[in-house]
Predict the 3D structure of the following.
Amino acid sequence: MDRQDDQGDDSHVDIDADGVDRDAEAVTPALTVAFARGVNPGKWARIWNERRPDDELRLVRVDLDEQREVLRSGAADVALVRVPIDTEGLNTIALFEELPVVVFAKGAALGEHDEVETAALAEEQLIMAPLVLGWADQADALGFAEPATPLTSDPEAAIELAASEVGIVVVPQSVARLHQRKDVEYRPIVDLPPVPVLLAWRRDREDEALEEFIGIVRGRTANSSRRSAPAETPATPPPPPSGKRRKAPKAGSTPGTAAGTSRGAQLAARKAKQEALARERRKKRKGR
C-alpha cells in the first residue's frame, strides 16, 4: 500500500459545509460517493465526468463515526474511508496511508523539531479525541493521565482552538492540511502508525456504475474497463494442405535439386574433367 502524505491534486470539487455536492442534488445520481474528511476525491470525480458526462456523481463528506452507516443505510454506494472502520459485510481496497500529525499554535515549543514523539505531548491539553491509530496504546504505555473531556469533536473547530493556544490536535495529515491556518503548525508523530485509507462498498451491492468507479480508482483506463472489454477474436487457422504430395528425393541427391546435380557435385565433375584434360595435354607434349 502506498503512503500518500500529500494529496495535492489540480482537480477541485466544491463541497458545502455539510459535505454535499449541491450541483448534483437536484438530479438523481448514477452513483453516490462518500469520503472521509480530508480525503480528496477530486481526481477520480474528474475522470468519471470525462468518461460519463451524462451520469451524475454525488459526493458526500462524512466524519469517522458516519463512515459505515452511510454504506449500511444505502445513503452512499461506495466510500473513501479512513481506518478504523468495521469492515464486516464490506469489500475494501487499500489505497494509501496518511501520516499522523500534531497541530499546535505557531511559535510553540513543539515546532522546534521537524518531527515529534508521543512522549513530547504528555503535558499538552488534547482539544479533541485523536483521529489516529495507536494513540490509546501509546498513552497507556507512557502513563498518560486520562484526558480531560474533549472541548469539541469537530476538527476544524479544534484547530481553531489550537491556534488560540488552548491545546493540541492529533489528526491525519490530510485533515491538518484541509483546515490549515497561518497561525498554526503541525509536525509528524513518528512513533504512531500510519492511517490507512480504503475504498469500501457493501458486498451485496453490484452494478455497472459501481464497477466503473472502482475501476477508475484502481487506475483502469477506459479501454480496459470491464464493461467495455472487447470480445476475444479467434486466431486465424493455418491454410489447409494443397493435396499434392512432394516426391521424395532420389538417393544421392540433395533436397530441392535434381538427382546428382547439386552445386557441389557440379563443381567436382568440372574439376575432374579439367584435370583429365590437363593429363592428356602433358602426355601429348611428352610424345613429341
